[in-house]
Prior knowledge:
The structure is a single chain. The chain is an all-alpha fold. Helix content is 77%, strand content 0%. It is built from three helices and no strands. The N and C termini lie far apart (32 Å).
Amino acid sequence: MNLFQSYRYTWWQIGIFKLALLGIGVAIGAQWHELLAEYLVPILLVALVATVYIMYVSIKQVRG
């Protein structure tokens, strides 16, 4: 079983996936806010780096 294979999803399936991740993130943040408060800056930094990377890859693919 290869977990690292390519998958194809429609735009609405990706939307559902993102909605699920958002819900999980909100639930974790609501329950563990005291524990995660001291790690807020590193978490935001990782999120920012990941966002910039995904934007770079996406723009690179569009431009060819």
